[in-house]
Amino acid sequence: MKMLLKLFLCLLGVGLCASQKVNIESRIINGNDAKKCEFPWMAFIHSRVREIGCGGSIIDSTHILTAAHCVLYPNKTSEPSANLDVYVGASALEDAKKLQVKTVTPHEKYSFKTNENDVAILTLASPITFNDCTKQIPLANATTKLTSTDCTIMGWGATTDSEKDPGTDDLKYATVLILNDKVCQQYYGYTLPSSIFCARGKGGSDACYGDSGGPLVCKESSGKYFVYGVVSSGYECDSIAGFYMKVSSFIPWIQSKISN
What we know:
GO molecular function, one term: serine-type endopeptidase activity
Strand order of the largest sheet: 10-11-12-16-15-14
CATH class of the largest domain: Mainly Beta
Organism: Biomphalaria glabrata
Subcellular location: Secreted
Strand content: 25-35%
Radius of gyration: 16 Å
Protein name: Peptidase S1 domain-containing protein
Pfam families: Trypsin
Number of helices: 3
CATH superfamily of the largest domain: Trypsin-like serine proteases
């Protein structure tokens, strides 16, 4: 995984990249506009102090699944919960409901160097009231099988990889193709850990700065969505395939945190 540094790894949540300026805008490159209530499990996480945004998934009435690097400082200190707001219930952020965070729980073994274990749980100060536009989404487990490698990512922000793009408050989504491990190895020159997979945008679409922590969702044969991955990192935007945390690898950890 040390090869990540040689590839100028960009952390999508904070736009931290060795080869370019820090950029905190969230983007789904070349994405489509989400319809009202189309992705009711989606959450937007905003740090009022650092002025950065990340995505997240509603996994039950009091917990949001996101990426660890979204809520950690470089010294691995957690972002204080008082700094964070979570928005749910609308595709347009101006219509979303703002919620307070009670506790921030990043994975204890997350590594900024290798980006392994890039998951975190936010516990909300009060339960979410579910409705047509606000719902929880199930997580993939060890027995989950993909019926298709075409899956979906989503996030808020600009639609192009340009610093001049003013951005938007409307949720965007895009289709990505999950790649097998051999293809990922060809891209990067090493074998990924079993808890990480890579996916590439289709038709020029991709995740980018600020979309970290958001879900990569796939459909069951019944048509219902589930979270298969968490957006983590990549080599710039709309280029080489990006990295995602494989949710099924973290089910025991997630269950231990939400049960507490």
